[in-house]
């Protein structure tokens, strides 16, 4: 009886796999980890500030005062995408700049850069729980003011971070990063090839291994087999997500989770048999700038449905 049960189980599993493959009409999703195929937009912003035409906004009234306020008692914030991040007593994220140096400490952010990235005054800064007080110091800026340092790295705020917990400065220009408690860069934690995250506006959505939002194109087809309608120049803005192993996912419905071969010969991942993409306009993890673009591009829910798309 035992042998017979196992044989029946194996047959049933084989039939299920065959049915799923037939439904999508393409390859299984057991290939290499995710990578984006196609062009990705470079991080922009004047002098790496990322403020563009809003550069003068930080100099306005209360916002400017808040940005120049002493750090107070520093704390460690648990960020869903970046792990542990340093924040000041008001909950604002602290950043470091790759063009600065820690040994010896030196700030190279002045003028318009310092408007976009206000230096954190050393002032009354003190270490809170989980922070080594020995890592806190100060550096004298060219204008004579004292700036807080963490493990030698000058600390800044970002003018576009309006609310406590904002991390809009993360990855700007490829040179600005949130500070981890040890002074290192807070970067995207290791993620599976595909996983999910809770977006404050869109709810539970799918992200790739870099934490970037995954999208669906409403002109694509899923049945009887996946077909991508995004080709040529379209792929410059919407890079395809390459195949992901079934065991390299977390939180997704695995039915219909497989790859297919596009008309250009490139293999592309699907969720619920629908081709998936990222958006070159998303500069950092958590961005959803592709949502609703052209009324045809939408973030993907764990079951493959387009989030926020009009009902048909």
Descriptive terms for the model:
312 residues; alpha+beta; 2 domains; three-stranded antiparallel sheet; elongated
Structural class by secondary-structure content: alpha+beta
Order of helices and strands: HEHEEEEEHEEEEEEEHEEEEE
Number of helices: 4
Number of domains: 2
Q: What about the largest sheet?
A: 3 strands, antiparallel
3D shape: elongated
Low-confidence stretches: 1-22, 29-65
Walk across the major sheet and give the strand order: 7-8-9
User: How widely separated are the two ends?
Assistant: 50 Å
User: Strand percentage, roughly?
Assistant: 15-25%
Helix content: 10-25%
Total count of strands:
18
Give a verbal description of the structure.
The protein is α+β, with helices and mostly antiparallel strands. The protein has two domains: 24-42 and 190-299, no CATH class; 46-170, no CATH class. Helix content is 13%, strand content 21%. It contains four helices and 18 strands. The chain has helices spanning 2-24, 61-68, 112-116, 234-237; strands at 36-37, 75-79, 83-87, 95-97, 101-102, 105-106, 136-140, 146-150, 153-154, 176-178, 194-199, 203-208, 215-217, 240-241, 259-261, 267-271, 274-275, 297-299. A three-stranded antiparallel β-sheet has the order 7-8-9, with no helix packed on it. A three-stranded antiparallel β-sheet has the order 15-16-17, with no helix packed on it. The model is unreliable at 1-22 and 29-65 (pLDDT under 50). Residues 284-312 are annotated as: Disordered.
């Amino acid at each position: 009886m035992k042998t017979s049960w196992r044989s029946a189980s194996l047959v049933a599993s084989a039939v299920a796999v065959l049915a799923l493959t037939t439904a999508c009409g393409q390859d299984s999703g057991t290939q290499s980890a995710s990578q984006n195929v196609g062009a990705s937009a470079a991080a922009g912003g004047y002098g790496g500030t990322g403020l563009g035409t809003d550069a003068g906004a930080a100099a306005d009234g209360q916002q400017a005062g808040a940005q120049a306020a002493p750090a107070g008692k520093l704390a460690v914030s648990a960020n869903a995408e970046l792990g542990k991040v340093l924040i000041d007593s008001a909950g604002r994220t602290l950043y470091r700049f790759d063009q600065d140096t820690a040994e010896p400490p030196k700030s190279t952010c002045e003028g318009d850069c310092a408007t976009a990235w206000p230096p954190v005054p050393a002032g009354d800064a003190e270490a809170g729980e989980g922070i080594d007080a020995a890592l806190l110091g100060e550096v004298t800026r060219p204008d004579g003011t004292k700036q807080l340092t963490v493990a030698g790295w000058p600390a800044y705020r970002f003018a576009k971070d309006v609310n406590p917990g904002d991390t809009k400065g993360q990855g700007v220009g490829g040179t600005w990063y949130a500070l981890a408690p040890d002074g290192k860069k807070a970067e995207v934690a290791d993620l599976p090839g595909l996983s999910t995250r809770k977006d404050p506006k869109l709810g539970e959505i799918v992200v790739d291994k870099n934490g970037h939002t995954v999208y669906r194109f409403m002109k694509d087809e899923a049945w009887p087999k996946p077909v991508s309608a995004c080709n040529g120049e379209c792929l410059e803005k919407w890079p395809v997500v390459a195949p992901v192993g079934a065991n390299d996912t977390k939180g997704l419905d695995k039915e219909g989770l497989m790859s297919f071969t596009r008309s250009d010969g490139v293999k592309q991942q699907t969720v619920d048999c629908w081709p998936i993409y990222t958006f070159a306009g998303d500069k950092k993890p958590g961005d959803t700038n592709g949502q609703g673009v052209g009324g045809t591009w939408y973030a993907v829910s764990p079951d493959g449905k387009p989030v926020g798309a009009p009902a048909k």
